[in-house]
Design goal:
The complex is a heterodimer.
Chain A: H1 2-6, H2 8-32, H3 36-41, H4 53-94, H5 100-108, H6 116-129, H7 136-159, H8 163-171, H9 176-187, H10 189-204, H11 208-213, H12 222-232, H13 237-257, H14 259-267
Chain B: H1 2-57, E1 60-61, E2 69-70, H2 74-81, H3 83-113, H4 121-133, H5 136-146, H6 153-160, H7 172-200, H8 204-212, H9 217-245, H10 249-254, H11 266-275, H12 280-311
Antiparallel strand pairs in B: 1-2
The chains are: A mainly alpha, B mainly alpha.
């Protein structure tokens, strides 16, 4: 009995944290299921109605377009980053050469960099390349700013792969490209998964480059499109909540199905096994 | 007969060694170059070149079109006299302080809760992580609605305790507090994960030994858990400080830097100067100051880290 009694404060703290972290979500989802009238009548009643109309409305109002743009640009950028970062990480982690340390430092220091220090030149650059206000303007900056963390994660992982495997392949007459392709890359899968999840979630949510480089509604990514919705839905709060719920849904679903991987992926290089 | 042949090839190879190493060196340099080239090219175009160009632009009076007028250090002189710049720098400092002294401790408490001997902790931990999964834009918009003066959750909640409605985001003295609360909400789960991983790594027998010596939970925490988490606390603080200097999204969405620059950050101020007022030169000066501050902080942290490791304060 005394043990159970002692645990009460623990339960109180756990539930308080649960309310703090979880309540805004409940509120968002519950509001998205109300009609406007129901919302103004009882704004705080949780799950008082179950009305999917709002979701249909926001989808028809262009949210689907933002979804397609976001999926397109994040997918292309993430796969490009995986290949480019894996290639660069191979010599950086497994070969000795003069500039190795300097190059590594150059890439890694990108993690500390404020994006603002590159905004105006990238804006001008996209303008002169003629891609300004298309989703392709986002590709370059997305790939470049995903490289530091990706190279960091991959080099950390590659250093752990035993040298003997590589040497065996060398004796069999493989050159470096063959070693990379046949020996290193297949062993890299877990690290590449981390890179994929980390970058996908970050690019899915990326805002500032989209804000600067894209202005037409039909080219907006999801975060930017949501921001644009705010004007149109200033009175229709349940509609806005439906848009927010939909935008958060893909990542929540992925999380619910593969929690461990997502958590590890999101912590990126910060959590070492 | 056979032996002489071998000798001959040997001498030949010795003669060839010099040219061959040269050839090998070139070949391996080429290999390394080919592996690194794609990353280096993209990185140079979109990171290195823009930073240098930002520095150059910062010496010009330029509206973004045509050629600007070279004005030397005038942008920086104006900047250091600009009250809004100092206000923004102060607000950035508030974000740093909140991150280090509120977010990280809260993340630690959340992580410790994950090891508490209570039922349903798996469920709790899944929910605790939710805020970090949501897009910053969605978070900002959700909380703007929650802070709404009339229909907002928060005011309804404080009404229960007999407080009057507060216009959270349109008063200078409450707006910063409100946004900082949201930042804590969003990022505490991230630090929870970092601490969780570190706590898992603490050997169980340390606690068993302490128990034999009769240590209570509080002693165990202060004598075992906390000291062993020190490296994680340090690296979390680095992430928090660097992240706070870059803060932009949530402030832009929730307040746009207002009211009356009350929540202005270097990031929001730079954005406004560049893409609303088209003072590209002045904005570049702000951006370059942001870069220098981040660089400076990084170097200080690295140096401190170097000396701490040298002293052997932690592994």
């Amino acid at each position: 009995m005394t043990i159970g009694f002692k645990k009460i404060p623990l339960y109180v703290v756990a539930v308080l944290l649960l309310v703090f972290t979880g309540f805004p979500f409940l509120y968002m989802i519950s509001t998205s299921l109300k009609t406007q009238g129901q919302f103004f009548e009882k704004p705080f009643a949780l799950f008082s109605s179950f009305n999917l109309e709002n979701f249909q409305t926001v989808f028809e109002m262009g949210l689907s377009r933002y979804f397609i743009n976001s999926i397109l640009v994040s997918t292309v950028a993430v796969f490009a980053v995986m290949i480019i970062a894996a290639l660069a990480s191979y010599p950086l982690s497994r070969m000795k050469f003069k500039l190795n340390k300097l190059l590594f430092l150059l890439f890694i220091s990108g993690m500390m960099l404020p994006i603002h220090a590159t905004l105006i030149p990238i804006f001008k650059l996209s303008q002169s390349m003629g891609v300004l206000d298309t989703i392709w303007a986002l590709l370059g900056p997305y790939i470049a700013f995903s490289l530091p963390i990706s190279i960091f994660i991959l080099t950390q992982f590659m250093q752990e792969i035993p040298k003997s495997l590589e040497e065996a392949a060398k004796i069999d007459g493989c050159n470096h490209f063959q070693i990379f392709w046949r020996v290193i890359l297949p062993m890299l899968t877990p690290a590449l998964m981390t890179v994929l999840i980390y970058n996908f979630i970050h690019l899915w949510n990326e805002f500032i480059f989209a804000l600067v480089l894209i202005s037409s509604p039909e080219n907006m990514t999801l975060p930017l499109g949501l921001q644009d919705f705010k004007g149109e839905f200033s009175v229709n709060i349940p509609g806005l909540m439906a848009a927010l719920t939909l935008a958060s849904l893909p990542i929540l679903v992925v999380y619910l199905f593969s929690q461990e991987k997502v958590v590890k992926g999101l912590a990126g290089g910060a959590v070492k096994e | 007969m056979e032996t002489t042949e071998v000798k001959v090839t040997n001498t030949r190879s010795i003669v060839n060694v010099a040219s061959r190493t040269k050839q090998n060196k070139f070949k391996s340099a080429l290999t390394i170059g080919l592996f690194v080239a794609p990353a280096l090219i993209v990185y140079s175009i979109y990171v290195i070149y823009p930073i240098l160009t930002t520095l150059m632009y910062s010496f010009y009076d330029w509206d973004g079109m045509g050629a600007g007028v070279f004005i030397g250090l005038q942008n920086y002189i104006d900047l250091f006299k600009d009250a809004i710049f100092w206000k923004a720098l102060t607000n950035n400092t508030w974000v740093v302080l909140t991150s280090v002294f509120v977010q990280i401790p809260l993340g630690l408490i959340m992580a410790l809760m994950l090891f508490a001997p209570i039922k349903g902790i798996r469920f709790f931990s899944s929910i605790y992580f939710f805020p970090f999964l949501m897009s910053t834009v969605a978070i900002g918009m959700l909380w703007v609605l929650m802070f709404d003066p009339i229909n907002g959750m928060i005011n309804q909640f404080i009404n229960l305790f007999g407080f009057e409605n507060v216009a959270w985001l349109s008063q200078t003295n409450t707006a910063l507090f409100a946004v900082l609360l949201v930042i804590v909400w969003q990022f505490a789960p991230f630090y929870m994960i970092l601490f969780k991983a570190a706590i898992v790594g603490i050997p169980e027998d340390l606690y068993e030994a302490a128990e034999i010596d009769g240590a209570n939970p509080l002693t165990k925490f202060f004598r075992i858990t906390l000291p062993l988490l020190m490296p994680t606390i340090v690296s979390s603080s680095i992430l928090a400080i660097v992240g706070s200097l870059k803060a932009f999204d949530i402030f832009y969405i929730m307040t746009g830097g207002g009211p009356n620059h009350g929540t202005e950050l270097l990031g929001t101020y730079m954005f406004k100067q560049a893409f609303i007022n088209f003072n590209m030169g002045y904005a570049s000066a702000i951006a370059f100051v942001m870069f220098i501050v981040a660089l400076f902080v990084t170097i200080i942290i690295q140096v401190m880290d170097y000396y701490r490791k040298k002293r052997g304060a932690y592994v």
